[in-house]
Amino acid sequence: MYPWPQRPAGIIEEAFKEQAKRWGPILDLADENGCTIGYELHPGSDVYDGSTFEMFLDVTDNHPAACINYDPSHFLLQHLDYLEFIKIYGERIKGFHVKDAELPPTGRVGVYGGYQPWAGRAGRFRSLGDGQVDFRRVFTLMTEIGFDGWAVLEWECCIKSPEQGAAEGAPFIAEHIIQTTELAFDDFAGGQGDVTKNREILGLE
Asked: Which residues on adjacent β-strands are paired with residue 67?
């Protein structure tokens, strides 16, 4: 939220203490039953980016059940680096909403939307492939962090119909899912390590 008007000192900290009080028992119960809770960080919520998520972790003593449902569209609308986010918080990401968005600002509206309906805002959700999210990089990074959960299509496009969005979105996701390799391109040149041979190659024997 844009920091205006100024807020009383300590009010945010007090709010997060209350969050810990309310969520603590739920997180404990989840952990006791081998579950996690994936908070979907979203503009307008108490926890909406990496910084506020870390504030929540601080007041919950880094609770192991406090995790993330990752949605890059929510971060693109904040001008937050949604790719770097995966690298930073990968171990906490337990869910994945595949949703696209765009934010081309105009001379009239920008990040805050000017109270316009979805179609009139600069930042708006789009069907998969119609927005600005780099899903090739997103799926690559999700694969690199070892994410093995569902890639869930979430549709909220302000232009395209939900029927078309679903028909196009399902194959879009299927085309982006990466089947990890167990081989490296240069494995053929490998072999068992031989200290003596290596020292000979280096001219040390």
From this structure: 38
CB 155 within 8 A of CB 96: no
CA distances from residue 163 to 37, 133, 137, 168, 169 in whole angstroms, order as listed: 30, 21, 26, 9, 10
Give the residue, 32 or 118, on which the prediction is more confident. 32
Tens digit of pLDDT for each residue in 138-158?
999 999 999 999 999 999 999
Give the phi and the psi of residue 66 in degrees, each rounded to 5: -85, 100
Q: Where are the domains of the chain?
A: 11-201
71 CB-side CA count, 13 A: 23
Calculated CA dihedral for residues 42, 115, 109, 3, nearest 10 degrees:
-60
Task: For residues 96 and 116, give the distance between their C-alpha atoms in angstroms, rounded to a whole number.
Answer: 28
Helix H or strand E segment including 39:
strand 37-39
Q: Does the structural domain 11-201 have CATH classification 3.40.50.1820?
A: no
SS3 content of the chain, % helix, strand, coil (to 5): 45, 10, 45
| Coil/strand/helix, residue 124 | strand
pTM of the entire predicted model: 0.88
The H or E element that residue 125 is part of is: strand 124-126
Rg of the chain over CA atoms, in angstroms? Answer: 22
